[in-house]
Amino acid sequence: MFFMQDEGEESQQNPLVDGGGEIEGGLDNFLWGGTLEKVDDDPYVSETGEPEYGPGGEDLERIIHTKSELGPLMKKQVPKGQVMRCIVKREKGMLGLSEDIVLCVQEPSKWESDKKHHRVLLAQKKQKSSTLNIHINFPEIMGRQLLAKIRSLDKNEYTLYDDGKKAGKKGGQERKELGHCKVTTSGATKPITLDCTVKLYEDVLSTTYELHTVEPKFNKEKNSYYLPFERVGERVTMNSRHNFLLKKTEDSFKKKKKPLQIGKIDKGLFALDVRFPLSPLHAFMIVLCHMQE
């Protein structure tokens, strides 16, 4: 399933994923995603006071309905020293026959009290494709116009493209590769690892960043893995196999802020924090690829 079924959740068919399956032994023995209490001596865990990034108020309401503004915002890096707070959730598709995955943004300084989810990106699997083909659209814009695609020609490897045309096809700009993910899983009772490369373009120049998942620690007493999330109990409240942290490959210092943190907060609902060098689109792509496993 796209979101791994947690104990007590009903099984739901998800068109974004082929196959499925249960976790061996359920979640009683393997609580993925970390302890829910703060570990005082763990240097990873910290309460951040950094500025929050993104539009708010009337600006946000206008931007999410305007392709010329929303597209560049979704492709733009979150500035250094700031964090964009988002929500990833699943929604029933048309007629309830499919399931969509949606990226929402939360207004800066209001994420604790504002329960409204401002939908900015929508992921839908193309059903008649011979290979995995996920379209990322603008959900609130007329016609749900395309922003990017995720394609997978090899098992566990995914490539993100913009909305351009294939090489050799007439009309429009030639499509660009925006990122690549390789996901590795060693079975239902082992953590998923992810390595990715993201490309950001400025005119004709591009900058490439390499990132990978933070290795979880294993607590022998509790017989479970845990990860050092920030704001435990606020941004991360539930255990899930798809809770994870991402770091830049060159970052060796534990206290470095992580470019991506995603943690479950409710059934089918995850809190996503995005930092430099990622853009919201890259973060959404990485989350979608991780949840394919």
Instruction: Decide which structural class fits the backbone.
Output: mainly beta
> What is the CATH architecture descriptor?
Alpha-Beta Barrel
What would the principal axes of the Cα set say about the shape? globular
For this structure, what is the CATH homologous superfamily?
A: Tubby Protein, Chain A
Q: Count up the domains.
A: 1
Mean pLDDT: 78
CATH class: Alpha Beta
N-to-C SSE string, H for helix and E for strand? HHEEEEEEEEEEEEEEH
Question: Major sheet: size, sense and barrel closure?
Answer: 12 strands, antiparallel, barrel
InterPro entries: Tubby-like_C, Tubby_C
Pfam family, one: Tub
Region (Disordered): 1-20
Family: Belongs to the TUB family.
What is the element layout, followed by pairings?
Elements: H1 57-63, H2 67-75, E1 84-92, E2 99-105, E3 118-125, E4 132-137, E5 146-154, E6 157-162, E7 177-184, E8 193-202, E9 205-213, E10 217-219, E11 224-226, E12 244-248, E13 260-266, E14 269-274, H3 280-290
Antiparallel strand pairs: 1-2, 1-14, 2-3, 3-4, 4-5, 5-6, 6-7, 7-8, 8-9, 9-12, 10-11, 12-13, 13-14
What this model shows, in words?
The structure is a single chain. With 293 residues, this protein is mostly beta strands. It has one domain (57-291): Tubby Protein, Chain A. The protein has three helices and 14 strands. It has helices spanning 57-63, 67-75, 280-290, and strands at 84-92, 99-105, 118-125, 132-137, 146-154, 157-162, 177-184, 193-202, 205-213, 217-219, 224-226, 244-248, 260-266, 269-274. The strands form two sheets. A twelve-stranded antiparallel beta barrel has the order 1-2-3-4-5-6-7-8-9-12-13-14. Strands 10-11 form a two-stranded antiparallel ribbon. A hairpin with a 2-residue loop joins strand 5 and strand 6 (157-162). It is globular. 34% of the residues are buried. Mean pLDDT is 78; it is low at 1-47. InterPro entries: Tubby-like_C, Tubby_C. Residues 205-291 form the Tubby C-terminal domain. Pfam families: Tub. Belongs to the TUB family. It comes from Chloropicon primus.
